[in-house]
Amino acid sequence: MIASLTLSGAGTAFAADGAPASDQGASPAATVEAPAGTAAASPLVSASAATGTFSYDQTELTLNSVIKDVFQRATSALCGATDDFVVANPLEWKLAVTGEVDNAFTAPVDELASENSVKQVMTCTCGGNPADGKAIITADVKGIPVSHLLDRAEARDGVNTVTFVSSDGTELAMPISYVVGRHGVLSYEINDEDLSASVGGNNQLWMTRTPANYFVRDVVEVRVTREEEPPANPGEDMTYPNSPNVGVLAASVS
Q1: Measured distance CA(206)–CA(187) in Å, rounded
Q2: I need a surface site. Which of 2, 79, 137, 177 has the fewest CB within 10 A?
Q3: Which residues partner with 186 through β-bridges?
Q4: Rounded CA gap, 42 and 45, in Å?
């Protein structure tokens, strides 16, 4: 990500190197008188406008041991999760896609992953995490795209809402356009290990630019519906001090 930094210095004065003091010394309030008809020599110089660039990225991966220490201990607050339901092999965990679809199905994670699986670096943070706070991680996330589940189930025209149902009965409804537009995936590996080594659980919804309390875990059902009024986008009308995958695009000083 590249950002431009513009410094508008016209008219802004900076102190130059001081001239040698006179034998008598000079009072801080003293003024310099110029001969009649000449301009007074100014001890200040003006900086011309300058433009520069800087760059940064968020590719430094957080160790799973750190993720486990920071996030797994507070999953009920950060990730909308309650109890862990860890199975011997998370790839055997079954997902059902139901609702207004022409091909409702239930399939194990490994079968769905063999059909379509993506791996991408993503960032997860608590919405209330302060600047320079610890509740933010960047990880290499591997999972099944929610868009693939919708395509496989043949979602009907006009559907606008997707509800994720966890194994403990927790439900979270969001606009389909939001989840797909934020590259939503049901992850089953983080940094090449199953979730028990990091955030806990068997699977977890990850999305870009979304606070972690919407990252539901242990999803067993994905329900697709058409609502007269679809749910609001996560975090709409809320101000968070820290938001993942957001940085300075431009700044200026005048």
Answers
A1: 7
A2: 2
A3: 144, 205
A4: 8
User: Which tokens belong to 20?
Assistant: 């040698």
Task: Label the pairing between strands 136-145 and 185-190.
Answer: antiparallel
Domains of the chain: 64-225 (3.90.420.10)
Question: Token pair 């003006």 is at which residue?
Answer: 46
Give 90-147 as a DSSP string. Answer: GGG-EEEEEESBSS-EEEEHHHHHHH--EEEEEEEE-TTPPTT-S-EEEEEEEEEEHH
Q: Looking up tokens 């950060």, which residue turns up?
A: 78
Q: Which residue has the tokens 């900086």?
A: 47
Structure tokens at 136: 């933010």
pLDDT greater at residue 200 or residue 98: 98
Q: Distance between CA 41 and CA 83 in Å, rounded?
A: 76
pLDDT digits (tens, 9 = 90+) for 113-124: 999 999 999 888
CB-count exposure of residue 46 (10 Å: 0-12, 13-18, 19+): exposed
Label the pairing between strands 2-7 and 50-55: antiparallel
Whole-model pTM? 0.69
Q: In sequence order, which ranges of the chain are alpha helices (DSSP H)?
A: 64-70, 75-78, 109-115, 146-153, 176-181
Q: Higher-confidence residue: 244 or 183?
A: 183
The 10s digit of each residue's pLDDT in 149-204 is 999 999 999 999 999 999 999 999 999 999 999 999 999 999 999 988 888 889 99
pLDDT at 246 over 90: no
Asked if residue 96 lies in contact with residue 149, where contact means CB atoms within 8 angstroms, the answer is no
pLDDT the model gives residue 17: 37
